[in-house]
Amino acid sequence: MKKLLLILTGGTICSFKDSTGYNSADAGRAAPVLVELLRNSDSRAKEAEFDIIRPLDTLSENMTIAKWNILLDALRDVDYGAYAGILIAHGTDTLHLTAPLLSVVLEGCPIPVGLVSSNRILEDEEANGGENFIRSVEHIAELSSSSGEHATSGEVFVIYRNTDGVTYLHKANALRRCTDFSEDFFSSGMRPVEEAASEGMKEDTGWEKTEAAGTMPLFRMPLFKMKPLQESVLVIDPYVGINYRQFNISGIRHVLHLTYHSGTADAGRLAAFTRVCKEQDVDVYLAPVPGDYKYSSTAELVAAGVKPMPDVTMGEAYARLLVMDAMNE
């Protein structure tokens, strides 16, 4: 197998206790720890070799659009033909946002890309980061061996062990935010990595086996067509008593309005806010919402000009709007 590229961005997986006793990102220290965990394991991929870069060193709660652009610039400089896959060490707080962003900008990527996180610093015995990293390396190795010399393309994934002790494989675009007081991740179609390994790349798993690395032109990837991301999207989370007069829509292009669990929001107030947005040429989108929404309130919003984004997570909806703007610059 070719080398893997390990991209360090910070987060808990790249953090250590500082002199004050708090966890602080120190990505430079993390790489040898991760590689040593792999070398000392009984993994069948323990001898994997890495090139390592560190474009960012931030706790993921401090992620910004500007920092995302730094990461995207680093991905533009990658020689995709030189690697079996890419692993990106990232924090958990904004993993549900960075993962779908990368799934959008790397559509058509010739090699698999995995995001790796940890619930605790690596020095903590309860940390899942070591296993998440090892399983991610193994997953890329399996993809590489299943497709000959090159790994299969088109897969951006997250591998993460939940508190139930099961390590799951997620499609990056489907990853959902952790719920309150939880450090577990869920997604539509998630499955244990052991099950994924036994199934391989069967068509019914939802993963597509596509062209081999080196055969797909990189310019097909949105990453190479877009300008830098801008802060062009306002995200609004609904709540009882919401007052839309409190939101400033000057300088933005889109409002992404989130929904309650059944794909609904306050129809009367949001419809009125949508009319205000239209007057300022700001589009209003609704997500997550099922494609077969059943409530009259949602139908009323659509009639008022709100644009539903059916069957996508909040993270993917946000990413697609940002990238759409960057492609139209």
Main sheet attributes: strand count, strand direction, barrel closure: 7 strands, mixed
Could you give the order of the helices and strands?
EEEHEHEHEHEEEHEEHEHEH
Question: Which range does the strand content fall in?
Answer: 15-25%
Radius of gyration: 20 Å
Helix fraction, binned, reads 25-40%
Tell me what the structure shows:
By secondary structure, the protein is an alpha/beta fold. Helices cover 29% and strands 18% of the residues. It has eight helices and 13 strands. It has helices at residues 27-39, 65-76, 95-105, 129-146, 193-199, 267-279, 296-303, 314-327; strands at residues 3-8, 15-17, 23-25, 50-53, 83-89, 113-116, 156-161, 167-171, 191-192, 233-236, 254-257, 283-289, 307-310. The strands form three sheets. The protein has a seven-stranded mixed beta sheet with strand order 4-1-5-6-7-8-9, sandwiched between helices. It has a four-stranded parallel beta sheet with strand order 10-11-12-13, with helices on both faces. A two-stranded antiparallel sheet has the order 2-3. Helix 3 (95-105) packs across helix 8 (314-327). It is globular. The protein starts with a strand and ends with a helix. Residues 148-152 and 201-216 have low confidence and may be disordered.
